[in-house]
């Protein structure tokens, strides 16, 4: 597992993960700067948790899978 695999600008999963990070930032800003009632907080909480789970899954997919177009890894000997 290489953390350098997170940066794959030609992979659509990379851009989706980047968009989810921007959404996390927007949700955090919304919670801190806007007064929300209980329903609003619950909706933002559900979106935030779903966003975090999907974002972590996408990051794991990027780290786990080799970049597209790269040769397959050599089998261990």
Protein architecture, described:
- Helix content is 64%, strand content 0%.
- With 77 residues, the chain is mostly helical.
- It has a domain at 12-64.
- Helix 1 packs antiparallel against helix 2 (38-64).
- The two termini are 18 Å apart.
Q: Can you give the helix content as a percent range?
A: 55-70%
Shape: elongated
Strand content: under 5%
Unreliable stretches: none
Radius of gyration (Å): 17 Å
Order of helices and strands: HH
Q: How far from one another are the termini? A: 18 Å
Number of helices: 2
Class based on secondary structure composition and strand pairing: mainly alpha
Instruction: Please describe the biggest sheet, giving its number of strands, its sense, and whether it closes into a barrel.
Output: none
Number of strands: 0
Mean pLDDT: 85
Which terms summarize this structure?
77 residues; mainly alpha; 2 helices; 0% strand
Write the layout of secondary structure elements.
Elements: H1 12-33, H2 38-64
What is this entry, summarized?
Helix content is about 65%, strand content about 0%.
């Amino acid at each position: 597992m290489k953390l350098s695999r997170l940066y794959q600008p030609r992979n659509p999963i990379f851009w989706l993960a980047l968009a989810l990070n921007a959404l996390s930032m927007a949700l955090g800003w919304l919670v801190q700067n806007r007064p929300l009632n209980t329903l609003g907080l619950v909706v933002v909480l559900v979106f935030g948790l779903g966003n975090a789970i999907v974002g972590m899954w996408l990051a794991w997919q990027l780290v786990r899978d080799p970049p597209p177009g790269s040769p397959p890894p050599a089998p261990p000997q």
